[in-house]
Amino acid sequence: MRADRLLQVVGLLRQHGRLSATELARRLEVTPRTVLRDMEALSTAGVPVVAERGRGGGFSLLPGYRPAVEELTASEVQALLLTGRVPADSLGLAGPLASALRKVAGSAPPEHGRSAARISDRVLVDLTGWWGAAEELEHFDAVQQAVLADRRLRLTYRPRDPTRTGVRTVDPYGLLQAAGTWYLIAGHGGRPRSYRLSRVLAATVLDEPSSRPADLDLRALWGDLRSQFAGPPGHTIRLSCDPARYELALTLLASQGAGRPRVLDDGPPVVFEVEVHVLRPTVGVLAGLGSAVRALAPPELLTMMVAVAEELLAAYPDVRSPAADPS
């Protein structure tokens, strides 16, 4: 769930007093079911949301409630802004996030608003990106400082070909996390490039302004870089997924070059389409998710799923699953 949407919810309720789930959904461009989940999250975080049923009912805040936005610390603001973009615990922000949500509000001091715009414009997480695992990032803080302060960065970088290890001075555009792996998107030699942070051997923030294009769209740029790296997907598949396994399914499908999902129904179950390169390896990923994910289309994917299941049953004729054992 996006913490910035929770801020919007509280702001709308403070401004309008009472709004129905349908009206909130329209204003936030989400489904009424998503609004209900947001209300549960706010209540859990300690925000006094009141629900009134019947004609003219809706959601409102407890009269007299004033969130303590002036007390938000810098780390709490950062945790709020990055939630939904970055797993809070991956940046050591799980504690500040819990504290910040208790102070959630519809607005923040002006200096925090400027920080919000900067972080939102410079940090992107694409859970459907290249496959990767969580990594130790010794120079993350220096790289993040350069990105947020719009300062040039001197890197000692070891690319995939270690013979090309060397020093590069780059103009940081933004940070990106794709399937657990962090990348710096930066300009070098007049071209945008991606640098895997686990391959950064040293990082020095320079006292020089970064030449970051004023109209840069980080998400669009990442899409271009990713497509150049992976090539065009070959198949569009439709899946039905248990909401509790949706994020895991996206992460695992990223190993098949899965693109950005298109949610057709937010469920439950969640029905979505995604593009992958090859069907057969994708069947292996889906089989590993068991009954949490069901293939719906195309027909050849369903046929392949059944064929693989039959092959597995034939390969282990003397093995019974615990669920099938009546004893």
Name the descriptors:
4-stranded antiparallel beta sheet; 6-stranded mixed beta sheet; 327 residues; alpha+beta; flat
What does this structure look like?
The chain is of the alpha+beta class. It is built from 11 helices and 13 strands. The strands form 3 sheets. Strands 4, 5, 6, 7, 8 and 9 form a 6-stranded mixed β-sheet that branches. Helix 2 crosses helix 3, helix 4 (74-82) crosses helix 5 (94-102) and helix 10 (279-288) crosses helix 11. The two termini are 43 Å apart.
In terms of topology, how is this protein built?
Elements: H1 3-16, E1 18-19, H2 21-28, H3 32-44, E2 49-52, E3 58-61, H4 74-82, H5 94-102, H6 110-122, E4 123-126, H7 140-149, E5 151-157, E6 166-178, E7 181-188, E8 191-196, E9 200-209, H8 218-230, E10 235-241, H9 246-253, E11 262-265, E12 270-276, H10 279-288, E13 293-297, H11 299-315
Parallel strand pairs: 4-6
Antiparallel strand pairs: 1-3, 2-3, 5-6, 5-9, 6-7, 7-8, 10-12, 10-13, 11-12
Helix pairs in contact: 2-3, 4-5, 4-6, 10-11
